Structure formats: structure tokens, C-alpha cells
Amino acid sequence: MEGSKKQWIIGYFKEEHKYSVIPSYWISTAILNGTPGHSCKWPLKQRVTTMMLMKGGKPSEDWKSYPVKVIEQFDSYEQAAMKEVEIFRSESENEETLRRGKRLKLSKTTKTQYDASGSYSCEEVTLSVYKKPALTNEKNKTSEVYTSSNILSNTRSDALHSIGYNFDSDLSNYQEPGNPSNSMPTFTEFMNSTNMFLNRLDKKLDVLLEHITHPPSAQYLPLDDSVLNMFPLKDIAAIQDMEENLQNEEYKLKLTHFIHSVGGTSLKNFIKRVLSRLFTNKLSSVCSWTGFKNNFRLDNHQIMKIVKQIAYDNYQMNDSSFECHVKDWFRHGSQRLAREEIIKQ
């Protein structure tokens, strides 16, 4: 059914006893048990969301094929979704009618068994009975609603199965349609409202998944020229002045956003890019993480604590890996300074 125009199908999965909106690109003709029919590509591990169905992109090669019966074809997803709701309501009403009839019959049925000892045993098939409270405008009238804890046992939908155990308590207040005093929702109305609620949750989950997959970029706060002109730091006195400036929370916030905006493809790349912006090669040649060989010690300074915190927020790391990359960068400070001076000559 692939074509140039995007369309949507209402398909019926017989094994699952389930109807669904399906993009036409997911449907193909197939020979099933010697009979021409259709098959549907469906992802195995990926959750099928409403957004995926609306976009209707072409399926991947690793998707599995399932036999499907094409019910109707539409030119828009909205039309197909409305038809799916109509089918769902119709199926729910039919199932409710059949179940009500079966419950009334089973309520008075007994099962006789013959055991090995030659005696007969009679096992009564019992179902839970719920009584509706007497109404004030009726004279001592009560109605019985017969139900069972496995009323939804044949329903394959995971969403309905997860809430099925809560239906018994709601059905205790159930009243027959057409009753003038009926103020409680019918079983079908309850099922429809639950389905709509689950659809809304599905759309919200799509938004959250999109937010997690593509997080919004960090807010950019422009820095004053007086802040920008301090970098890269040229001597130890500049480091000490920076330490004093970082006692101001506003200045600390601006520096945090500046370092965050530098970014990097990995932890090592991030540390290399940030330290190159913060320190000159000349200053890095006389500094080290722990003050090794009488170099200026940096591990207890605020500027390095800020760099470390941002690295923790954005990369998989621990203290050991962070310190290893920082030590390595400062250890090669003298080599970078020598290459710089050769280039200047």
C-alpha cells in the first residue's frame, strides 16, 4: 500500500483482538496461509507513540511483520483516530451486553463432578454480588449487579489490564442505561473516559521524551567587557584577584555560564577547551593541581571547583578522571609555551 500520498489505515490484529491506526507505509501485501492479505510492520523494542503514528514515517528493516486486516483507509490521521474511537465504543457496548447476559446465567449455575471414590460432589459457581444503595425516592428497591474479578481477563490491552482491578468497586454503583435516576456513568462511558485519559498521558509522555532526548540549550547570559577582558589569566596575581571576585554571587553566576558555554565533545575535550580559555600557556607552566615541584596549587580555588561541577553535570566522570585530565593539561604547559614562543619568532 505504499504510495506517494501519506495515508492512514484502521487495521485489525486478529491474534491480539485489537484495532489500531496504522500509517500506510507500514502496510504491505502478503500471502497468508495461501490467501492474499496484508501484513503490518511494527517495532519490537521501541514504544509506538501517537507522534510516530501521526508522522507515519517508513518502517525500519528490523521491525517485525504481523498479519493485519485492513478495515478502512483515510487521508488524515485525525479521521482515522475518530474512526478508531467509534470502533472502540461499539466493541465495548457489544462486550458489555454479552457479559451482562453471561453473568445473569452463571449466577444460578452449578457444576456437578464425579470423583474417583464414586460419590458426586456439587461445586457452586459463585460470582461477587454488589447491591446498589436504596434511593430515597423509591420504596425499598435495590438492584443487583453481577460482576466478576475476571471481567477483563480476555482484554489484551495493557492499559486496560492495569486498571481492570479497580473496576469492581466502580461497578458497584453501576445502573442500567435509561434509568431516569441514573447519575453514575455507565461501564462504556467509564471505559471511554479512561481511554481518553490514557491518550492524554501518552501525549504528555511524548513531550517528556522529546525534552529528554533534545534538552533545551542552556540560557546564555552576556558577560561584561570587564569580565571578558580578564581571560585568559596571565599571572598568579590574576588568579588571586579572580578568587576575590568569585565571592560575589552575580559574578560567580556569569563565570559559570561562560564556562558552560565553552562546552566540549567529551570530558577530556571539555577540560582542554576550558583551561585554554582561562589560563595562558605561560601561567599554566607555573601551575599544577596539587602544587607539585613548588608550582602554584589550584585544587582548592573556586575557579577550578566551578569547572569541576560543570563537568560533573554534563559528563560521565569521577574525581579521579577529572584530576587526571587536569594534571595532564598543566603538565604540558611548558611544552605549549615553548611552541608558542617558536611561532612568535
Automatic annotation (TrEMBL):
Residues annotated as domain BEN: 224-345
Entries under Pfam families matching the protein: DUF4806
MF annotations from Gene Ontology: DNA binding
Organism: Macrosiphum euphorbiae
PANTHER family assigned to the protein according to its UniProt record, in alphabetical order: SI:CH211-262H13.3-RELATED, SI:CH211-262H13.3-RELATED-RELATED
Domain of life: Eukaryota
Protein name from the UniProt record: BEN domain-containing protein
InterPro entries per UniProt: BEN_domain, DUF4806
Record lineage: Eukaryota, Metazoa, Ecdysozoa, Arthropoda, Hexapoda
